[in-house]
Amino acid sequence: MGSWFWFALASAVMAAFVSIFGKIGLQQVDSNTATAIRAVIMALFLIGVIAVQGKLTQIGEVLANRKALLFIVLSGVAGALSWLFYFLAIQKGDVAKVAPIDKLSVVLAVGFAFLFLGEKLSIWGTMGVVLIAIGVILTTIA
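-> structure tokens emitted (142 positions)
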């Protein structure tokens, strides 16, 4: 397995902690305000990461690339909306039900990658995506 697998696994573990920490932190506070504070913390943390890596100068390169910047902005807006909805959902519902529904993003991302990027799936990959969808349904009706 390539390094991508370990990064993806680490992402899943951290995403799970986001749900748990978020649910605890959202008790008796506004979810949109909490999401905004979280976004500021994320931005500061990530600026620190690129500073430590010595990559602060690359910010100008990204800003100069109009196509890249457009899609990064769109990704940022989509991510912000996703987290606004997610924090609102976990504040009002159980993480055990909200998190699986959120993972429909996997099914949607694979579908969008097929439609917009021309990415293909093997029969096993297709079956895996179908099983994810079935799993989401089962966890929400249980």
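The CA atoms of residues 39 and 106 lie 22 Å apart.
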